[in-house]
Amino acid sequence: MTRNGQRLLMLIDDEPAQRRLVAAIAARRGWRTVFANEGEVAIATLGTPDGMALDAVILDHSSPDADASELIAELRMRRPQLPILMLTANGSVAAAVSAMRAGATDFLVKPLASERLLAALEAAVGGKTSGELRPLTEKLSAPLAFDEIVGSAPQFRAALAIAAKAARARVPVLIEGESGVGKEVVAEAIHAASPRNRKDIVAVNCGAIPANLVESELFGHEKGAFTGAFERKIGRFQEADGGTLFLDEVGEMPLEAQVKLLRVLQSGEIQPIGARHPKEVDVRVIAATNKTLLAEVEAGRFREDLYYRLNVVQVTIPPLRERTGDIPGLARHLLGRIAEQPGLRPLGITDDALALLGTYDWPGNVRQLQNALFRAAVLCDGDGLTRADFPQIAQLALGKPAGQGAGSQSSGNAGVTLFRPDGNLRALDEIEADVIRLAIGHYRGRMTEVARRLGIGRSTLYRKLGELGIDQSAA
């Protein structure tokens, strides 16, 4: 830490624009940034006063001189405790795996979102696993259909049921939930189940766009429309014409851009910057936010009229700490997807490790769980993950009072609660309904397999669905 109390970050990157962006974002939380355009300069800097005071390093994988893994290994050898974050382009899985094996603390995916960068820095210097990081595996995995989404908790399945019904309509959908709960996964499932699925969903992270570029990003611009507009740009609305536009972190959108978004939703027309005439577009909008958008309206940070335009159908995804019984199924599912990535292999996971994962609150939700599993899979030498492969989670969960987590009043890892909050047993039909929902989620809606595993016939299963009021689209 520097003498004036600022924390010190070294950025190893030769791109001036990205240097300015990272430094500006880090400065919001009191970080001062020093720069090195190549590995040799970074190594030399370690011996200077600035180098001695470093609190963290960010390395761009595309830096010119080096095998990033060799540079990370060298930095790690010289400073064993120094947090090292690698910045990589989406898709560079093999590079990320190699970097983490060389000693990188974590990695971030470009383009950078300000909150994720700040969360990563805070997590790194605090010695914690970040809940805001977006692992490469999240973006590389193919979208899931509703019947492929893992989770049997009633509140979660109810949210999916609403989303599944809304998918068939053209109406806007607002998805609320904490960071990392899987809002984008649900948005992609809505699109996949809609009549618009012939086109790819177009995603925009509103929190990652500078305020002065939001209008150009969403609606496009003509060549020469403003300083720096050297060529015509097609906006995301026009790109999504005939399909679906996913506005992630919509609560971060500046008020001026909110006005223009509202106008587009009302008129069905966009006006690219510098264009003489508007263009008609046919776009279904799905928005997501990790904030309570109605509270943002009341605080004057989000337009009320836009809120009601976006919130025709609302889907609220519960946090992972409210459905810890889903952790075993989620962990196995995520490990299967991680194993598909270059440089990784199929791994099992022990009951002891699953029990540990169930004792943690997961403030970063499913994204954080996936990040922890990805890290463990990268570093694992055995055939399966054990409790020892999650030292950070074990440390964070240490001292948590008994009665919290997946093991609380439930049947082991099954995730079916036996007792009510007042200590009395739940009714048998309620428990039976939860078991059936869990089985349908675990076997991804394959009803023949569900019936076989439950030891009943398919006709009996469907009869119970009706008797217990289980909506199969939500189960």
Structure in words:
This protein has 475 residues and is α/β, with parallel strands linked by helices. It has 21 helices and 14 strands. Helix 1 links the parallel strand 1 and strand 2. Helix 4 runs parallel beside helix 5, helix 8 packs parallel to helix 9 and helix 15 crosses helix 17. The termini are far apart. 42% of the residues are buried.
Major sheet strand order:
2-1-3-4-5
In whole angstroms, the N-to-C terminal distance is 52 Å
Secondary-structure-derived class: alpha/beta
Strand content bin: 5-15%
**Total number of helices:** 21
Give the proportion of residues in helices.
40-55%
Rounded mean pLDDT is 83
Outline the biggest β-sheet: 5 strands, parallel
Stretches where pLDDT is under 50 for at least 5 consecutive residues are 128-140, 399-414
Number of strands: 14
The radius of gyration over CA amounts to 24 Å
Shape: globular
Helix-strand blueprint:
Elements: E1 7-12, H1 16-27, E2 31-36, H2 39-45, H3 49-52, E3 56-60, H4 68-78, E4 84-89, H5 93-102, E5 106-110, H6 114-126, H7 136-140, H8 154-167, E6 173-176, H9 183-192, E7 202-205, H10 214-219, H11 236-239, E8 244-248, H12 255-267, E9 269-270, E10 279-280, E11 284-289, H13 293-298, H14 304-310, E12 313-316, H15 327-338, E13 348-349, H16 351-358, H17 365-379, E14 384-385, H18 391-397, H19 428-442, H20 447-454, H21 458-467
Parallel strand pairs: 1-2, 1-3, 3-4, 4-5, 6-11, 6-12, 7-8, 8-11, 13-14
Antiparallel strand pairs: 9-10
Helix pairs in contact: 4-5, 8-9, 15-17
